[in-house]
Amino acid sequence: MSIILDKVNYIYGQGTAYETYALKDINLEIKDGQFIGVIGHTGSGKSTLIQHLNGLLRATSGTIYYNGEDIYTEGYSMRALRSKVGLVFQYPEHQLFETTILDDVCFGPMNQGLDKNAAQLRAFEALHSVGIPEELFDQSPFDLSGGQKRRVAIAGVLAMKPEVLILDEPTAGLDPKGRDEILDQVAELHAKQHITVILVSHSMEDVAKYVERIIVMNQGSVMYDDTPKNVFRYYKELEQVGLAAPQVTYLMHELQEKGFPVSCDATTVEEAKQEILSVMRS
Amino acid sequence: MLRDITIGQYYPTGSVIHRMDPRVKLFGTLVFLISVFAYKGIVGFAIVTLFLAALISISKVPFRYMIKGLRAIMILMLITALFNLFLTPGEVLIQVWKLKITKEGVMSAIRMAIRLTYLILGTSLMTLTTTPNQLTDGLEKALKPLAKIHVPVHEISMMMSIALRFIPILIEETDKIMKAQMARGASFDEGNIIKKAKSLIPLLVPLFVSAFRRANDLAMAMEARCYCGGDGRTKMKPLRYQSLDYQAYAVLILYLALLLALRVVL
Ligand SMILES: Nc1ncnc2c1ncn2[C@@H]1O[C@H](COP(=O)(O)OP(=O)(O)OP(=O)(O)O)[C@@H](O)[C@H]1O
Ligand SMILES: [Mg+2]
């Protein structure tokens, strides 16, 4: 069970004066249960890539297989695909529209064909899991703060119980606490329900902390696709394409240059701490 | 999906027409519109067609791209043609039940269809070769004399340029919201009319909210930069006629004179 992208290309505005080659020959396999980070500078094609995974954009050429089935074959239900691959867009709070928060979160489950009660049950669960208190459920979503709106919008996708959850910069513009809360909840979902998670992020720290595999996008192509440790070894190359390694990686490199026998593999503060402690003890 | 709308879009090719002063192009469009309705006879028609074809080829905008805009008004054209076809009195060609197709009807249907097509092609040639900013600049300058009689020329052109600027933004926004709702299982083309109308709510509500938010932000940003209307405002790139523009005016006047002369002679 997996998503496979085979030689996927995508061109925006084909046949007009504004053609943009947004994806170039992408080959990827996304295995079940993985927690994947997608990084890349602005305009590198991250959002374009993830919109292919649930069929919102149709590849200009190439094929995508979901659980072994070609999603572009005649009669393949895109709607069913979209309820299995949940996509939370950049700034998802701009898509809220219902009169109450609960109704808005129910929108997805109802489209899946659930009845009102079952949908509300799902909505309750999803809103709880993103930390929205129950007394807000009957309020208008437009009266919430930006961070709360973001959570409600994420709950709107979680309530559909997707097998694959894709988040496009879910923490942009949130405070550090809200950021950690949302990502911790996603990590918990991943751990407990074994769903596949794809996280698009500009924060190297977040990516290093949560994911097990990083896909680096550069000008529409996959530049690296490996574990965080291996990817951040290329921190010099990453800098050249407008990215960076986590702060602690730089710290470890400096320590090494100053003559401390630390290894430079640490990508999170916790790992760095362990590494430094073990070097100091020995 | 919504990106196929080409009306009012700019298509950069850097041709001679693109480099002309927007006032020339506004005047040119007016001249062309007059000529489309004023030509007479097959010779006149040939001249108008040649003129349009020449302009299109000089502009370097692909013809295929130009006629994409025509599709939008296909319905309007069909209805006009049908009315002309059946309701023009004259020599009867075919009669089906009470509907009569007359020779005059056929002629006027064809004439009308041609006129409408040329009209659209002519105006889209202007918008395809002129950025919205140039267009409103040109309009503001051309209408400047009206400011003497207290017509708020600057404000009107400012509103126009903002409105034009918002069209692509709103199209993009619509695209984004549609996709976001489709990711939540919404579909916009299923069921009967009532169902379809209902399915638009998840699209329209966020769209209006965002349009108001953007308008508000824009107003704030303009005030923060001390915008206070047109009095005493100067331009970074004031419009100035080049020799190219005078030549273009000469060509336009010649063209119009030729057509009007033909009309008198024939
Ligand atoms: N709707 C669109 N129409 C035309 N071009 C587009 C559209 N969306 C994106 N592009 C272009 O495609 C390229 C990739 O854009 P994309 O949105 O995938 O980047 P991204 O990696 O998500 O960037 P960011 O980090 O800013 O979100 C860019 O060059 C962009 O200009
Ligand atoms: Mg993006």
List keywords for this structure.
heterodimer, A: about 280 residues, alpha/beta, 6-stranded mixed β-sheet, 4-stranded antiparallel β-sheet, 11 helices, 10 strands, globular, B: about 270 residues, mainly alpha, 2 domains, two-stranded antiparallel sheet, 2 strands, flat, binds adenosine-5'-triphosphate, binds magnesium ion
Q: Using the CA coordinates, give the radius of gyration of chain B.
A: 23 Å
Mean of residue pLDDT values of chain B: 85
Going by helix content, strand content and strand pairing, the class of chain B is mainly alpha
Largest interface: A-B, 26 and 22 residues
Beta-strand content of chain A: 15-25%
Task: Give the overall silhouette of chain B.
Answer: flat
How many strands, what sense, and barrel or not for the largest sheet of chain A?
A: 6 strands, mixed
Number of beta strands of chain B:
2
Q: Distance between the terminal alpha carbons of chain B, to the nearest Å?
A: 49 Å
Mean model confidence by pLDDT of chain A: 91
Structural class of chain A: alpha/beta
Structure description:
Chain A is of the alpha/beta class. Chain A has a domain at 246-282. Chain A has helices at residues 46-53, 78-84, 101-111, 116-129, 146-158, 176-193, 204-210, 228-232, 235-240, 247-257, 269-281, and strands at residues 2-12, 20-31, 35-39, 61-66, 69-70, 85-88, 164-168, 196-200, 213-218, 221-226. The longest helix of chain A is centred in the middle third of the chain and has 18 residues, at 176-193. Chain A is globular. The model of chain A has no long low-confidence stretch (mean pLDDT 91). Chain B has 266 residues and is mainly α. Helices cover 69% and strands 3% of the residues of chain B. Chain B contains eleven helices and two strands, in the order αααααββαααααα. Chain B has a two-stranded antiparallel ribbon with strand order 1-2. Chains A and B meet through helix 2 and helix 3 of A and helix 8 and helix 10 of B. The complex binds adenosine-5'-triphosphate and magnesium ion.
